[in-house]
Amino acid sequence: MGMMVTARRLDSAADEVRYAFGFEDRFDRVLIIDPHTLEARAEEGDFDGAASVITAKIVKMWRSSGEFPTRAMFAG
């Protein structure tokens, strides 16, 4: 069984980019990415598979366009 993780950008500051993310369209968690190092963490501390795959998708999109996307989706 696959999973679908979606994210929408909440804020983009000089020191962090914040995304609401979750399964399907439940944006019940917050992902924080350091735009300088691309290190990511989940606000609540549980950096699990869902956080990992959506981070990878966001970073891939950033590398492609040079900007953090307003929305991202991983289906796999």
Key phrases:
single chain; 76 residues; alpha+beta; 5-stranded antiparallel beta sheet; 1 helix
Tell me what the structure shows.
There is one protein chain. This protein has 76 residues and is an alpha+beta fold. The chain has one domain (4-75). Helix content is 22%, strand content 38%. It has one helix and five strands, in the order E-E-E-E-H-E. The chain has one helix at residues 49-65; strands at residues 4-12, 17-23, 29-33, 40-42, 71-75. A hairpin with a 4-residue loop joins strand 1 (4-12) and strand 2. The protein is globular, with a radius of gyration of 11 Å.
Sequence-ordered SSE layout with sheet pairings:
Layout: E1 4-12, E2 17-23, E3 29-33, E4 40-42, H1 49-65, E5 71-75
Antiparallel strand pairs: 1-2, 1-5, 2-3, 3-4
| Derived structural class | alpha+beta
Q: Give the overall silhouette.
A: globular
Low-confidence residue ranges: none
**Would you count the extended β strands for me?**
5
- Computed over alpha carbons, the radius of gyration is 11 Å
Order of helices and strands: EEEEHE
- Structure annotation, total helices: 1
Distance N terminus to C terminus? 9 Å
Task: Please outline the major beta sheet.
Answer: 5 strands, antiparallel
Helix content bin: 10-25%
If you average the pLDDT, what whole number results? 95
How many separate domains? 1
